[in-house]
Amino acid sequence: MADDVFGCTLWGRDWVRIAQPLRQSRPDPTLPRARTLARVGAVQVTIDGRVVRGVVQRGRTTSVVRIEVAPMPDETVAAITARLGGSRPVVTDEVHRAVTTTGLSPAPTLAGVDCSCSDDTGRCIHVLAVYYETARRVDDDPRTALDIQSCFGDAPGGSRVSTTASPQRWVALDALDPADYFTVST
After folding, report:
1. Could you tell me which residue ranges the SWIM-type domain spans (predicted)?
2. What is the largest distance, in Å, between two alpha-carbon atoms of the chain?
């Protein structure tokens, strides 16, 4: 399987760029292993507000990762809001491009990174694997990129994007109740 399965959207690519910064001048040998961990399902990610928590199972060890993301600046929120008009706003790559052409960046800014492993660099294989898994989730639903940065919801200035229409591109099978779809006639 190719290594380019992460960052298929511009929103997901922002998370891949955190793992693979453009300023990096030499190869990082942990990146292919981190992508493999994310690809084979060894990374479980939960998103709670601006905190991404990941549990990474690698061999016999389990590491817990916590990534805190800074809130999106109000100017960027306003630029996104201006492009998400209509009754059913959809977060697309065109919205990302339009915001970046104004000189603003919708890319996440990290406020803190922590891993339970002994590596204290903040760029261990576990953290990198969580970045890739988060990129995959953002690729599946780009609104997640905005959720993580507190773009949706209430803000002091009231300028945050409304979540009245939230299109969902996929549903986890375990979230469905078969009783809603099948009936037994007696």
Report:
1. 100-135
2. 69
DSSP element (H, E) containing 145:
helix 143-148
* Cα–Cα distance list, 13 to 8, 28, 159, 171, 178 (Å): 7, 18, 26, 22, 35
Q: How are beta strands 43-48 and 110-115 bridged, if at all?
A: unpaired
- How far does Cα 88 stand from its chain's mean position? 21
- The yes-or-no verdict on residue 108 having pLDDT over 50 is yes
Q: Give the residue, 97 or 158, on which the prediction is more confident.
A: 97
Give the integer Cα–Cα distance in Å for 31 and 29: 6
Rounded CA-CA distance 34/106 in Å is 24
CA nearest to 51, candidates 36, 64, 33, 38: 64
Domain boundaries, the chain: 3-180
Give the C-alpha separation, 123 to 1, whole Å.
Answer: 24
pLDDT per position as a tens digit, 9-20:
999 999 999 998
User: What pLDDT is attached to residue 163?
Assistant: 41
